[in-house]
Fold these 2 entries.
Entry 1:
Amino acid sequence: MKKKLLTGVLAGIVLVGGIIFAADHIDAPAVTGPGSTSPANDITDVYAFQSPADNSKMVFVINTQGLLSPGASATASFPSNVMYEMNIDNTGDNVEDLVIQCLVQNGKMRVYGPVAPAAPGLSSTVRTNGPATEVAVTAYGAGSISTAQNANGTRIFAGPRDDPFFFDLVRFREVIAGTQPGFRNPGVDTFAGTNVMSIVVEVPKSLLGSAATINVWAETKTK
């Protein structure tokens, strides 16, 4: 298979020692493109956490294309010219030691890794020599989801999901403007009723090295 060189920009960052996450709905025009409100290369959230069903595994999630309405969710897709890359630092130097690379090939989401990158930085070569897992993208409104697992225990999903991020944007703006002293309890979720395009990768911890803490960040990269 022909290898591809892609370049991109950092779109989300997360430090994992349990679970910490970063959220960023709708990026700047340099990332999203002019006039676009839900581009395929816009990362909304990055999550990394121990599997609640199996403590020998870690789960990595990249959510993209925020604020999708139900109608937009029905036609949303992962483009073939964008790679979603999860970077994993297991030595504490903030340089990726492993990558998980996700991209659409032959109409399906294919995930390579965890595997050592060809070189660290903003340019990446698709590491087709690493373990690969392939799954059909689950359609919006499907009665069941599609998952796939390879021989090394990596399991993947790709498709639309309800946006899990909760934020009371109206009250936040009021607090910033000085018209309210703080957030309400309970808050009102601004993202209720909207969806994201999600990539979920579950990986055995044994494939991530022996470090007790890992640093994780995600990027989108375009050919």
Note: Residues 97 and 123 are 15 Å apart (CA to CA).
Entry 2:
Amino acid sequence: MTERDARTIRSLSVEPGDLGGHTVEELCDYLDAGRAPSDPSIDQSPGCQIALDALERLRALTPALLAADTAAEPETDQRWVRKILDSIALDAHAGRRIPLANAVPRTDLGVTEGAIRGLIRAAESVIPGVLVGACRFDGDVTTPGERVRVLVEASVPYGDSIPDLAHRLREEIRARLRAHTTMNVSGIDITVHDVRHRGSRREQQR
């Protein structure tokens, strides 16, 4: 990772309270050190784990996003990276509590909205070259059984079929939501806001 990339990631604005008292700069340093020595205050913080997971995936693609041979549209790529970082900041916030239906009487289970956004973002990891940006829920996620649409923005690599990538991303998100939530998902809308030039041989080989 270049110093410019490090400054970009470190510019992410997340309140320390969302990250167990840690800052994004500390999380970047923790990743640089290979998560060693182990820090339980980071490893056991849901907000930290959401941010670390998203930062690791973004860092893996950032060199390609900002490579020199995309100089024809450098501002577009950098704006998209900024948008991804802003979305990671949102993921780290707990947000609303989403209830989980269960068959055990007098048991109240739930998961945070931030954790679900992190779950959706992680779907990009199985579709090479795709980056998930903002994710929103259209509907009352706090009421069990209420219909909810999932709205996702994405960036995709140039040269691949956009409909195919969108379909694969939609199905991966759907599978993850079914496996880990009881949300009544009425639909998943994928909007591609950015098509990136393949900025490095490494990304071309993905």
Note: The mean pLDDT is 75.
